[in-house]
Design goal:
By secondary structure, this protein is mainly α. The protein has a domain of 331 residues: Hydantoin permease (Orthogonal Bundle). 73% of the residues lie in helices and 1% in strands. The chain is built from 24 helices and two strands. Strands 1-2 form a two-stranded antiparallel sheet. A hairpin with a 2-residue loop joins strand 1 and strand 2. Helix 16 packs across helix 17. The protein is globular. The protein starts with a strand and ends with a helix. The N terminus and C terminus are likely disordered.
Length: 486
Amino acid sequence: MSAAGVNGKAVPSEASSNELEAMRGSALYNEDLAPTKAEERRWGAYEFAALWIGMAICIPSYMLASSLIAGGMSWKQAIFTILLGNLIVLVPMLLNSHAGAQYGIPFPVFARSAFGVLGANIPSVARALVACGWFGIQTWIGGQAIHTILLSLWSGWRGVPGGIWICFFAFWAMNMYVVIRGTESIRVLEDYGAPFLIVISVALLGWAYVKAGGFGPMFTAPGKFATFREFLPFFIVSLTGMVGFWSTLALNICDFTRYAKSQRAHAVGQSLGLPLTMTLYSFIGIAVTSMTVTIFGAAIWDPVALAGKMGSPVAVTIALAGVVVATLTTNVAANVVSPANAFSNAWPRGISFRTGGLITGILGVAMMPWKLLANYETYLYNWLVGYSGFLGPIAGILICDYFLLRKKQLSVVDLYQRKGEYEFSRGFNWNGLAALAAGCGAAFLGLIYEPMRVLYSYAWFVGFAVGFSAYYLLMTVRVPEIEQAQ
């Protein structure tokens, strides 16, 4: 199974019947990890744009934008930081998309080419644990929204013991229902949810505009930084946070592009869907948060708390219904697919996609998301910047391996076999793991050694550069062997 072309245009390749038969007998294979068939590749540019609209319009995105205002940026500085961060992360995302669209393979299988058929479990589980944390955060937000809706509709709900926890686990069950229905249900959810989310978001902006008497409060509010020298440290950390926000999907995006009709379909859909949606929705978050100062006398950066102050039960219900839908579409697509595939990859014969999704749900609760949302500093500095130091090196290693060393050529049969091209040393590519350790070590050196703090502030960038470079240097001695095997 190799790259194919029609009239010079790259098209997805498909495993032959003989290749599938060889793979099915392997302990590294199950139906959820198998290369997608031609009839399964139905996602066009609209589906990918809708996917990103559904994922980007979420409460953490809103809070991310609000955190920049809370940290002292003006609205122009915040919008620029968000747009730049998303344009940067779009590059590795499109690069890592290629293997999924070309070979129909998910992220854990793709990672086998760089880390070994067993070693791939390390980066895929690392990505999965971050997703579990995000799943818990999103589920807590969705539960809060349901709780607030019930309070607005029935005052007696306030007296129900453990009401917030009932709502939390009810929303958790909604997420698990979509997981059990399978990957196709995610596509349907995104297709119908995306237009609804756009309408709700614009309506929220319109409500704030009318209540505040225009955009004046936002346009006239200056940032707290008097000079560029004062602004730069916060900008660096914020930009890393922006990149870190979607550095998760920059790794496992092939979990979705494996269903793409073509390379062009996912590239166009993602290029339009991600940066534009994130920037637009961030503008809404910044504008509404700024105007709440005029409306309520204080900046309210939590949209769930804001909706609870709207007064009318109908307005509260409609606004929070949008929160619930936004959270559900993001949570299932961004935070369940990757860990479900990762856990399935760790034990292909024993864990299916659905079982992996249930494991994700359980771990998401165990990670206590209510603490991760304690304040904007914990959210931005510790959570977003922190995990980006782990994910940056993985992205650098995968891109170096696939594009620079393997020239986009993979043996899909060997990805599912022991003793094949990707066996390395008993299933582990120690060069890949050493490069990963070097990238993480460089990024976190700044966390433990204050004079090198800038390394942590640039955690994703430092990790990516060191991981990419170290992997290339360690693997160059293997380049002739790789080319000979192909």
